[in-house]
Amino acid sequence: MTFLSATLDRVKQSPTIAVTTRAAELKAQGRDIIALGAGEPDFDTPDNIKAAAVQAIKDGKTKYTAVDGIAELKQAICAKFKRDNNLTYSPAQVSVGTGGKQVLYNALMATLNPGDEVIIPAPYWVSYPDMVLLGGGTPVFVEAQLEQDYKITAAQLEAAISPKTKWFLFNSPSNPSGAGYSWDELQALTDVLMRHPHVWVMTDDMYEHLAYGAFTFCTPAEVEPALYDRTLTVNGVSKAYAMTGWRIGYAAGPEPLIRAMRKVQSQSTSNPCTISQWAAVEALSGTQEFIAPNNDMFIRRRDLVVDALNDCPGISCPRPQGAFYVYPSIRDCIGKTSAGGTQITDDEAFATALLDETGVAVVFGAAFGLSPHFRISYATSDSALTEACARIKTFCEGLH
């Protein structure tokens, strides 16, 4: 009899965390490493948000709170949904957790039974399938290839739905591809969902405010109001507000689901950090003026990276609509050998050789469910991105 739970046999450690850890280890050994694996802005948390946290400490707001969030934060979240998404929620329909990941996990743990299926478009954020497996469900993947801009079609969604489908887990703009669904593209998907009333929608809108150019963000319950009663809309302050370490995510949905999620959280972590909650109140309710200039920097970095990667032999990189990732194809690199003698059998071999031979750390595409690709986070300095892309080009030129 093994000591550890058999549940752990169904899941793996986060590949993005593994890449970041490996890069840090090599850097500690004195290697010149450029780490492009972590998905977090390099901007500092805005001063008004930091000041709100300091004030909360000074005011003694350091005690336990309600399990899934203080009333002031829930009210701010309701106001945000109305302001930004034309969605009306009451505080009783809101759950606040320790990051968006916990909110998603709570929802899956509260709803999945053995045999339940969750449809996940690929490429996907690495944690989605493992959270489904931990909850006892079965992930069902729908591949969105480069040729379709990494976005699934209505026909693909229709074909994936079965009597066992419980959730459609949706993310736009996407981690890892940065692909964003337009209103019409999302309407086509919601039309399918309207024909299958047993399927609920879990939408991860974490990159909502990181939308570029002509692309305008929209969310399923906004596009199709008739889905409101079976949609959990998930968001957080991590990305747009540069608050990854503050660990605040939130969701709004039907009250029975929110109550079930609260029960899960009450027996795991209880309330999120009190100080972080007060900071999040200011993030959502205070000035939003910094978002546009930050996005201008992200657009410049995106274009720098996309243009440089498309100049690399064997790489094809589309220009994403949002988030701060690119997800280039390395289809034409597979089967070749690196200058250091590594056979490029797949995207993991490519990423490993790239790190070992050039010191550039990226995340291989298989981690996101679609190969052969890799992901770069361009949420870092222009100089680091320029140098990294130059090393990638030299690496690709050395393939033979």
UniProtKB/TrEMBL annotation:
Cofactors that this protein relies on: pyridoxal 5'-phosphate
Domain of life according to the entry: Bacteria
Enzyme Commission identifier(s): 2.6.1.-
Cross-referenced InterPro entries: Aminotransferase_I/II_large (IPR004839), AspAT/PAT-like (IPR050596), NHTrfase_class1_PyrdxlP-BS (IPR004838), PyrdxlP-dep_Trfase (IPR015424), PyrdxlP-dep_Trfase_major (IPR015421), PyrdxlP-dep_Trfase_small (IPR015422)
A single BP term in Gene Ontology: amino acid metabolic process
Matches recorded under Pfam families: Aminotran_1_2
The keyword Transferase belongs to this UniProt entry's keyword annotation: yes
UniProt cross-references to CDD domains, sorted A to Z: AAT_like
Reactions catalysed, as given in the entry: L-aspartate + 2-oxoglutarate = oxaloacetate + L-glutamate
Molecular function in Gene Ontology: L-aspartate:2-oxoglutarate aminotransferase activity; pyridoxal phosphate binding
Aminotransferase class I/classII large domain span: 32-392
Keywords of the record: Aminotransferase, Pyridoxal phosphate, Transferase
UniProt keyword Calcium, yes or no: no
Oligomeric form and interacting partners: Homodimer.
Protein family membership: Belongs to the class-I pyridoxal-phosphate-dependent aminotransferase family.
Name this protein carries in UniProt: Aminotransferase
Species annotation: Loktanella fryxellensis
